[in-house]
Amino acid sequence: MCVFVYTVDNKTEPVANRAPMRFTEVYLGKVEVMDFRKNSRSELGTRTATLNRLGVQKLRRNWVYLDI
Questions:
Q1: Is residue 41 part of a domain?
Q2: Is residue 44 part of a domain?
């Protein structure tokens, strides 16, 4: 799984003065089926899967870039 975390300036006006998008974190790690939890299907949505707590910890140990 690869995750990119970024910040975006969507408030500064005029738009031409906004700061560029900036990556703050990048993670790249191998996750497996047991690293996910299943989320119930809502009335209007589809069934999804999300990393569980241990899966998130596993992914975060495999950081590629951290802007600290």
A1: no
A2: no
